[in-house]
Design a protein that fits this description.
Layout (H helix, E strand, L loop, with lengths): L4 E6 L6 E2 L5 E2 L10 E8 L11 E4 L5 E5 L2 E7 L3 E5 L10 E2 L1
Length: 98
């Protein structure tokens, strides 16, 4: 990876969602602007806020997709990330740091 680029793999849960009443909402359903979760696979040398293995929140409309060895990934800039999930939320914190 070069510069401030982050390579992520989309979470499986980003495709279909389940409503609180149990209705399956397909990925193609039109909803308001919704952010997506992904797992960081690789980072460039100038990325300082996230590291490999972090779970990050980003806008799926601002992405470039790439396929490597049959697996789909998303290429982002570090500034396009909106949040990072903590590995284990403790106490009454949200489990996110922004």
């Amino acid at each position: 990876m070069l510069h401030d680029r982050v390579l992520v793999q989309m979470d499986a849960e980003s495709s279909e969602r389940l409503s609180t009443s149990g209705i399956v909402i397909p990925a193609t359903a039109s909803v308001g602007k919704r952010l997506a979760w992904a797992l960081v696979v690789a980072t460039g040398p100038h990325v300082h806020q996230v590291s490999r293995g972090d779970r990050v929140l980003f806008d799926p409309e601002e992405r470039a997709e790439v396929e490597l060895h049959g697996t789909d990934y998303v290429l982002l800039r570090e500034r396009d990330l909106h949040g990072v999930a903590e590995p284990e939320a403790t106490g009454q914190r949200t489990g996110l740091y922004l």
